[in-house]
Every structure is written in C-alpha cells, then in structure tokens.
Amino acid sequence: MATFKVNGIEQNLDVEPEMPLLWALRDELGMTGTKFGCGIASCGACTVHVNGRAVRSCTTPVSAVEGQDITTIEGLAGMAAGANTSAPSLTAVQQAWIDHQVPQCGYCQSGMIMAASALLASNPNPSDAEIDSNITNVCRCGSYPRVRKAIRSLATA
Known about the structure:
Elements: E1 2-6, E2 9-13, H1 21-28, E3 47-50, E4 53-56, E5 69-71, H2 73-81, H3 92-99, H4 109-122, H5 128-134, H6 144-154
Parallel strand pairs: 1-5
Antiparallel strand pairs: 1-2, 3-4, 3-5
Helix pairs in contact: 3-6
C-alpha cells in the first residue's frame, strides 16, 4: 500500500512499492498530463513536484514518496485558483508559456512547466546559466529559446 497526497488529495494505492510514480499517477489515478518519455530520468517529460521540488517520476518508486505531497501538471491550475475555487486558473508559468508561444508539439511541455515552476519557486530571478542548468528537459522541437524567454519574463528584479 502506498499513501501520499496528489494535488492535495490523499491517495491510498494498492501497488508494488517499486512501481514508478509515473505509472501510479497515469495508470492508477488517471492523471495523464505527466508524460512518459524515456523511462531513465533523462528527458524530463515525467517531471512532477515532490514537496515542491522537481522530480523525474519515471524512476521514482512510490515507496520513495510515501507520506509526501505530489503536485502534477493537473494540480498547478488548482493551486493557482486556490483550494476553495472550483474553476481552475492558469499559473504565471502556464500563462507565460502561452504568451511566448513556447510549445510546438507540446508533448514535453508539462514536464518543462513543472521544472520551470520549481525553479522560479526556489529562485525567482534565475540567470540564463541557472535556467540552463536547472531546465534539463529534452524538447525535440527545440523550443529552448522560448522556454528561456518565458522564464525570464517571470523573473523578478
């Protein structure tokens, strides 16, 4: 049995302790916004937040997140709207992605948004070098300049 909170809701899953968090989220909880990319924690399509920290869920066993708070891309909008609001709203990062037309195909973007959100929460004014060293997600479309531009637009002086 694995117990943890996902987007503020406690979940009790009867799964093997070594099951990757990615598959618990997608297959057991139906949260398909978190994507499978490589399965070896290299591409970042599976990025979620564990206690506010960006984590690659494809190689994180559910036993490693026992009792912790998980936020998925689906949970970001709810967090932006507030816990008592039924209508989700976009986070500043999600809006910046739209404003700067970051995605092309969009497959990797939920992971990119999760990584950028964690970066900005811990460092509200990252340098280009800090953005590059923290946003290691792979985008086959090559949207990296727009990712950096969107993040820089949110940075505070």
